[in-house]
Amino acid sequence: MTKMNLTLLILLTIFSSCQKEENIDEPTNETEVMYIMPAETEIHEGTWLQWPHHYQYGMAYRNSLDATWVSMTKELVSSEKVHIIAYNQTEKDRIISLLNTESILLTNVDFKSYKTDDTWIRDNGPIYVRDKKGNLVIEDWGFNGWGNKIDDLTGLLIQSKNCNKIPSKIASDQEITKIDLNSEMINEGGSVEIDGNGTLMACKSSILNNNRNPG
Q: Pick from 192, 209, 208: which is nearest to 200 by CA?
């Protein structure tokens, strides 16, 4: 199946989920399932966090969020890996200092130094799926900063180029096959919910919106 056919299949699934219940078509036995996205409730290896920094929104913004990210890390490390994305080496060192201050063991923590624009890796990060052989694959959808949104604090266009590169960088570092869908469709991870059994719920304002996917 070509990348275009795969994308069209995914789009048709999304569009169907946004129709009224009486218009939803049941999948047929002829539907070829290429990839399976596990449900969020299934056991997983770890959680990715994009740590707040001052390079886009300033020191006050960064400092106001640090405690929350430290708290998330503290709760997560007891049961799974935590993959932290730091803007650069300086930020990585600062984050390690914050975690050490709270006596958080770093055994289950690893770091990647990637430039980011914002913290919402839920929306711009990689979407992990499995192919028919059970191999992990990363879907790299396009991300344009929530439809080229204007920031409420600065009145400026939210930058998204750095965040859009995150899935590709992770795929490269982890040596995982990547499906590049950037030119096919804008998507946000937080706009879709999947139960692992073929049911998809999608946010219409995020998927079927001219500021994401015109037409």
A: 192
The residue to which tokens 């998927």 are assigned: 207
Q: Which conformational region is residue 148 in: left (phi greater than 0), alpha (psi within -120 to 50 degrees), or beta?
A: left
CATH number at residue 105: 3.75.10.10
What's residue 4's pLDDT?
46
Per-state percent for the chain, helix, strand, coil, to nearest 5 = 35, 20, 40
> For the segment 109-130, what is each residue's pLDDT rounded down to a tens digit?
999 999 999 999 999 999 999 9
H-helix or E-strand containing 205?
Answer: helix 204-207
- Separation of alpha carbons 165 and 174, rounded Å: 14
* pLDDT for residue 215: 81
**Pairing status of strand 81-86 against strand 46-50:** parallel
Domain count, the chain: 1
Higher pLDDT, 155 or 153: 155
**In terms of residue numbers, what domain contains 14?**
1-215
Give me 27's structure tokens: 């999948």
Three-state SS for 42-57 is CCCCEEEEECCCCCCC
Distance CA 92, CA 97 (A): 9
